[in-house]
Amino acid sequence: MILRNKIFESFLDLFYPHLCLHCSKKIEKNYFYFCKNCLMYFDYFKPNPSLNFSAVFENIGPILTFLKEMKNKNLFSIFKIVAAFLVVEHFKLKWDIPDVIVPMMEKKFLKNHIFDLSKEVAIFFKRPIVKKTTSRDTVLVISDTLNFKKFENFKSKILYKKIFCLALCFDVFFDDFNLSE
Fold this sequence. Notes:
Elements: H1 2-15, H2 36-39, E1 53-57, H3 62-72, H4 77-93, E2 100-103, H5 113-125, E3 138-146, H6 148-155, E4 162-170
Parallel strand pairs: 1-4, 2-3, 3-4
Helix pairs in contact: 4-5
């Protein structure tokens, strides 16, 4: 029985090998989506808890592959993984638990990858996704990439008591002020 399973696994591996999403090399056993080498290039962003926005990773390497896979919706399980990174980052920042989750989307009626990501974050927090907020709400805005100007514009359009924004990575790098203070 064990021999048959190994032969079957080898046969499947021959025709459907598990390849790294980023570099397309064969993935070692017990690794998923990314190989051991690519996982070493996940650069965590050093957050500043006093700011009301943050990103989990630097905008380089395999993170760009994560973004591409999310936007193309090739792997729906990737949304759970990215949402878990966002939730862990939220707790590392020691921000207030949100009352509502709001996806930072330009078109509110369009359900895209940001909506899917927000839905997964909402499941982790057991909070609803809403389109309209009240002045009593602590709001967590979710995005794939964070652009500071877009966040400020988005912030001006909704009501909130407190607002925080989390993204997988920053859309641009901030040269004009230091985020690590």
